[in-house]
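[Meeting: bench + compute handoff]

Bench side (C.D.) handed over the final construct sequence. Compute side (W.E.) agreed to return the predicted structure before the next meeting so the bench team could plan truncations. Sequence as handed over:
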Amino acid sequence: MKNLIINMTTLKINILDYGCGNLLSLKRSFEHLGFNSNISKDLKEILEGDVLILPGVGSFGNAMQSLKKLELIKTIKEFAETEKPILGICLGMQILLTEGYEFGKFDGLNLIPGKVEKIKDNLNPKMKLPHIGWNNIEVGSGMSKFISLYDKKKFYFVHNYFANTKNENDTIATCNYSGIRIAAIIQKKNIIGCQFHPEKSGEIGLQFLKSFCQNHKEL
């Protein structure tokens, strides 16, 4: 993937405001990088943007209920069909999948086929949940230059549930937590999700956000 020279001040980055995200931290991160970003739940504004960020803090069912109440589900899917990039972060990544099993069974956006399931702590009696703190990610072979830059890099995680993609090729990076492989980054065409929080991951997290925006036309 080649680096693109872009005008950071004209790139329209919308951070979706649906009541389940770390919105101000993300906005400050983009501002620190020199990008203009907008916190929005306006349907027209979202569709006219260049990049859509789905933040996420909370539970799968509540997130989907909020998107439905705000009539944003159709808008997100329409945006995805334009082939413009979407980045889902933590819970925002998880709701990209088909269904989630946190406090019940709930339909997701189904933009990347798969299920969101609880990390099975019975596989390791010494495992502590949630998975919280810094962890290295491992990028699969043959990935894009953008993603490959982050092989063996440490990011900050906070979660009890993980993305189990139907197609294993949609999981493009993993991390090892107490001997269990967990999806760290998933991707299907223009749609990317990261289980970690780049906005809480220091300089490497900022670099990840910058690389995503710089290469947004090449995803």
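W.E. noted at the follow-up: DSSP finds seven helices and 14 strands in the chain. C.D. will use this when planning the next construct.
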